């Protein structure tokens, strides 16, 4: 009880107050508050679709990446006759939920209301789930405690835990983690290393199992969906580097390497997709590469004016396009690994591209496998990036071989979705 009092009476109110004070200076926080307005009204309106005669599974995900991991499991529960609910912690995942918005089995999909006293009770009371599934690490105390009090099955899928996580230490955070993870009826870890670390938080009889990444199936599906999209003429004929989810920390090293490659290899083309394609950022990138002919993707898709020179650089001025754009390339650079951690390397690998990235890739099990298999290259700086890029552009046969090797590795991991679903369904065997 002391833990719950501390969380609801002290920690949550203070955290929300600080977030509100910071929101005028943080666009993502501001959007989080704005888009939660009316969430309870939307929730109660959605309950008209709840059929009490059918079981419901509730998936809670942090953001876009976790939703894409959950999607293959949602499809399987839908096909098994379950109703569905999805909550997200972050606004960045909302557009991806549109992929399932038309499903008649979907009762409710929205941002998770703030985890204050009584919120979880209202959610459980309305949804009456038979199973609650969390992705990776996003366990909210109010949800977990209420599910445990109601003796509702709860599971963690694609569970991740960093080697130096504060959850493994003694103290307040470690105490909370052991309580929350210990209430899971099933923990499926993303990797064997995660399984060993998660095992330290739970009793031996409830030990986690390695479950892999169910989102690999989504990656392969999205790449397959993009196969028939037409390519711009120059990109259909010539070797292209697709740079996905780049941050300014990446671009410090990447832009000089791109200029060198475009100068040295006349046939080379570049697709550059900044992680946050704001207008100021797009203008900066246009200026940095202006000597090579830059066009925005929206303009290319709308049709460039007759007689306009063919661009060598396409700048992606929208979001959610990368899975389809990787098919334009012969190799890929994936951003994030010069800052907090590499982004999704599975998509370019699934499209048959060898992958380049920066030095901080320990957050990605797929990156570790690609690197160990030799079909990805991690670089420490711009000079190493430029050398690796030119080396692959100058050896198209090796580039194609490594790309095929990368795709084979991803395809081999695709069975995790069915294994995860079977394990989750076993928690409620009477249905």
Q: Any chance you could write out the topology, listing elements then pairs?
A:
Elements: H1 2-22, H2 27-35, H3 39-46, E1 56-61, H4 64-79, E2 83-88, H5 94-97, E3 106-111, H6 119-127, E4 131-135, H7 141-149, E5 153-159, H8 172-182, E6 186-189, H9 192-198, E7 209-210, H10 216-225, H11 233-237, E8 240-246, H12 248-264, E9 269-274, H13 279-288, E10 294-296, H14 297-302, E11 313-315, H15 322-325, E12 331-334, H16 346-350, E13 355-357, H17 365-373, E14 376-378, H18 382-393, H19 396-412, H20 416-425
Parallel strand pairs: 1-2, 1-4, 2-3, 4-5, 5-6, 6-7, 8-9, 8-12, 9-11, 10-11, 12-13, 13-14
Written description of the protein model:
The chain is α/β, with parallel strands linked by helices. α4 (64-79) crosses α10 (216-225). The longest helix has 21 residues, at 2-22. The mean pLDDT is 92. The protein contains 20 helices and 14 strands. The strands form two sheets. A seven-stranded parallel β-sheet has the order 3-2-1-4-5-6-7, with helices on both faces. Strands 10-11-9-8-12-13-14 form a seven-stranded parallel β-sheet. β6, α9 and β7 form a beta-alpha-beta unit. The two termini are 34 Å apart. The protein has helices spanning 2-22, 27-35, 39-46, 64-79, 94-97, 119-127, 141-149, 172-182, 192-198, 216-225, 233-237, 248-264, 279-288, 297-302, 322-325, 346-350, 365-373, 382-393, 396-412, 416-425, and strands spanning 56-61, 83-88, 106-111, 131-135, 153-159, 186-189, 209-210, 240-246, 269-274, 294-296, 313-315, 331-334, 355-357, 376-378. It is globular and about 65 Å long.
């Amino acid at each position: 009880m002391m833990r719950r009092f501390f969380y609801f009476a002290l920690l949550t109110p203070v955290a929300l107050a600080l977030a509100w004070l910071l929101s005028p200076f943080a666009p993502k926080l501001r959007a989080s508050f704005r888009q939660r307005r009316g969430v309870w009204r939307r929730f109660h309106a959605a309950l008209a679709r709840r059929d009490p005669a059918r079981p419901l599974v509730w998936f809670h995900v942090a953001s876009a990446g976790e939703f894409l991991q959950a999607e293959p499991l949602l499809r399987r529960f839908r096909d098994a006759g379950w109703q569905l609910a999805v909550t997200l912690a972050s606004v960045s995942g909302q557009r991806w939920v549109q992929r399932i918005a038309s499903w008649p089995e979907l009762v409710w999909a929205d941002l998770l209301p703030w985890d204050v006293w009584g919120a979880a009770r209202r959610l459980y009371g309305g949804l009456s789930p038979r199973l609650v599934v969390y992705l990776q690490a996003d366990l909210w105390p109010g949800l977990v405690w209420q599910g445990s009090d109601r003796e509702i099955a709860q599971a963690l899928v694609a569970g991740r835990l960093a080697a130096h996580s504060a959850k493994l230490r003694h103290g307040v955070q470690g105490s909370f983690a052991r309580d929350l993870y210990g209430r899971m009826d099933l923990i499926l870890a993303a990797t064997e290393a995660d399984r060993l670390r998660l095992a330290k938080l739970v009793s031996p009889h409830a030990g986690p199992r390695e479950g892999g990444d169910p989102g690999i199936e989504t990656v392969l599906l999205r790449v397959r969906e993009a196969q028939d999209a037409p390519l711009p003429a120059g990109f259909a004929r010539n070797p292209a580097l697709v740079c996905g989810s780049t941050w300014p920390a990446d671009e410090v090293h990447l832009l000089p390497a791109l200029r060198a490659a475009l100068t040295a290899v006349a046939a080379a083309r570049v697709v550059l997709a900044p992680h946050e394609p704001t207008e100021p950022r797009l203008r900066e990138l246009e200026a940095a590469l202006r000597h090579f002919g830059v066009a925005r993707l929206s303009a290319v898709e709308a049709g460039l004016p007759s007689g306009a020179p063919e661009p060598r650089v396409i700048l992606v001025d929208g979001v959610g396009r990368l899975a389809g754009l990787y098919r334009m390339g012969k190799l890929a650079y994936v951003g994030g690994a010069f800052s907090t951690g590499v982004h999704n390397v599975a998509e370019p690998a699934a499209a048959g591209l060898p992958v380049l990235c920066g030095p901080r890739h320990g957050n990605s099990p797929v990156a570790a496998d690609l690197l160990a298999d030799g079909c990805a290259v991690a670089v420490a700086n711009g000079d190493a990036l430029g050398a690796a890029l030119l080396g692959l552009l100058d050896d198209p046969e090796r580039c194609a071989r490594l790309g095929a090797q990368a795709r084979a590795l991803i395809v081999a991991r695709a069975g995790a979705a069915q294994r995860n679903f079977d394990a989750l369904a076993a928690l409620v065997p009477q249905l």
